[in-house]
C-alpha cells in the first residue's frame, strides 16, 4: 500500500492570497472523497499530491520520502491523476495511442502497453474505437479515455478530479465499478467531487475543504450527518439524507437501500 502524508501544508500562487492554509492529512487506503465549494483549494491540493506543484511551506511524504525529491515523471509511476477536463489531458490523434502513452512513458514495452490499454478500454466500453480520434467522441467518452489512460499505468494511487461531471447514470455506474475494483486491489483512491450523492454512496471517507482549510474529515456517514457544519462550507447533504431529515428519521442515511430498509421496518413494526 502506497502511503501519502501531508504535514502543515501551505500554498499560494501569489504572495497576496494563500490558497491552502496548514493542511494536515494522512491517506492510508480508504477510498476518499474531497468536497467543497469552488475556490476551496481542492484541485490545487491534488496537484500538490501529484507533484505538479510544490508547497510554499510544509511537506508531502510519499512512502516516507518528500515529494520535492521526485520529479513529476518519477511520481507518475505511482500516482495517477485524471484531470477534470479531459481536453487538458488528451493530445494524441487516436484513442489507442492516447491510452498507451502513459504505460510507454513509465517503461512498459510496446506489447505490454497495448495489452494493458486495450484491457482498460474494454473496462470503459471503448474498445471499438482504438483508431478513432478522441475529439470525434463525446465529452463523457473523452473522460473515459482519460480514465483508461491512467488505469493502464497501474499506479498505486489514483486521483480523480470531478469524474462524474458530464456522465449519465450508466457512466456513473461504470465509475462506481472502477473505484470499487481499485479499492479491492488495495489501491488508494482520492476523488474531488461536487456530487454529494455519489460521494456519500461510494466513498468510505470524506474530507470537507473550506477556504483553504480542512473543515471536516471522517467516515462519510458521520461527515454527511453534520448538516450545519456542511452549511458552513456552502454544501448540502446528499438527497437521501435530506429526505430522511424531512421524514424526521434520526441517524445518517447515505443510500436508497439504507432509507428503504428503515422505512420497511417501520411499516412492518
From TrEMBL:
Family under the similarity heading: Belongs to the ABC transporter superfamily.
One Gene Ontology term of the molecular function aspect: hydrolase activity
Enzymatic class: hydrolase
Source domain of life: Bacteria
Domain (ABC transporter) ranges: 4-236
Entry's EC annotation: 3.6.3.-
SUPFAM superfamilies referenced in this protein's UniProt entry, alphabetically: P-loop containing nucleoside triphosphate hydrolases
InterPro entries from the UniProt entry: AAA+_ATPase, ABC_transporter-like_ATP-bd, ABC_transpr_CbiO/EcfA_su, ECF_ABC_transporter_ATP-bd, P-loop_NTPase
Leader peptide range in chain numbering: none
Species per Swiss-Prot/TrEMBL record: Anoxybacillus andreesenii
Keyword terms of this UniProt record: ATP-binding, Cell membrane, Hydrolase, Membrane, Nucleotide-binding, Translocase, Transport
Name assigned to this protein: Energy-coupling factor transport system ATP-binding protein
